[in-house]
Specification:
- The structure is a homodimer.
- In chain A, helix 2 packs across helix 5.
- The first copy, chain A, is mainly alpha-helical and about 140 residues long.
- The first copy, chain A, has 5 helices and 3 strands, in the order H-H-E-H-H-E-E-H.
- Chain A starts with about 25 loop residues before the first helix and ends with a helix.
- In chain A, strand 2 and strand 3 form a beta hairpin.
- Chains A and B meet through helix 1, helix 2 and helix 5 of A and helix 1, helix 2 and helix 5 of B.
- Chain A binds a DNA duplex (30 and 30 nucleotides) through helix 4.
Chain lengths: ~140, ~140
DNA sequence: GGTTAGTACTAACTAATAGATAGCGCCAAC
DNA sequence: GTTGGCGCTATCTATTAGTTAGTACTAACC
């Protein structure tokens, strides 16, 4: 068990990252965690460990392809841990890494706030649609 | 000036919202604020008021179409306020509503955390790509 | 013992969506 | 008078998401 190519702790630590810059890797990672399925996967895994198909049932509407793709991206970014038992049939468990857990708490905070404020959003929508509809008096 | 169809304060307040349910409106709104451009627009507007093209320059890489579309969705959801002066040339200013500001602080928290942790993400990626690359020894 | 269902995926194809480009009517600056 | 800026929208194409079928095997049911 060698420790392969040593990655010095500070190889990337000098760099500055800015999500507002097109092409910055931080924007890429942001899209992984704030993407349509990224948020839901992260928040689901915050509840605990899930197997692939259980996660698919939890995240209603996700296709197998997109779930696999999302998990692979999150795993590469070090946010999700994949534990595979090479049995037959295969058993693969997904969980959050410590880093992923930090992201997940922030996402959870956001979506819990959102769910609580949805009545306000619905009212805003109703007002908006009303106004739009009105000045088009037949 | 009648006050149109009164929208009772509690018309939507009994309903429960769950982003994990396919087809729930809360998921729709979530996608508006966590979408690729939604996050960046919200965080930019947290810095202050922007005009359309100034915002377009701030959010590097966004197309006119997507910026317009994103702003319209956020406005309808009551997160962004649009103030248009009907002068020539037109002057349109975008800002956050109080509701939008609440969402924006949470998004800001997330992206600031992310930018700070990007070195960890980069290291995770390097480790991951290494491992993948390795067991394909030419 | 043969059918059905489940496991974790990938490959191939199609539907939806994002992005690029051009145009609008008008004005200010060079 | 030509160029560029304002805030968009319409049209067309490139990218991406979603759907379906298949893999190799087991466990449960009739």
């Amino acid at each position: 068990m060698d420790d392969r190519v040593a990655i010095p702790q500070d190889e990337f630590s000098q760099l500055t990252f800015d999500v507002f810059m097109r092409g910055c890797v931080s924007r890429e990672t942001m899209e992984h965690i704030t993407g349509r399925w990224g948020v839901l996967v992260m928040v689901a895994l915050h509840e605990g460990t899930y197997r692939f198909n259980a996660l698919r049932r939890r995240v209603d509407g996700v296709s197998e392809k997109m779930l696999a793709q999302t998990l692979q991206a999150l795993e590469r970014d070090g946010l999700v841990h994949r534990e595979a038992e090479p049995t037959i049939p295969p058993k693969v468990e997904y969980s959050l890494t410590p880093l992923g857990a930090q992201a997940a708490t922030r996402l959870l905070d956001l979506i819990e706030w959102l769910e609580g404020e949805m009545p306000a959003v619905m009212e805003a929508r109703a007002r908006h649609d009303q106004a739009r509809g009105d000045h088009r008096t037949t």
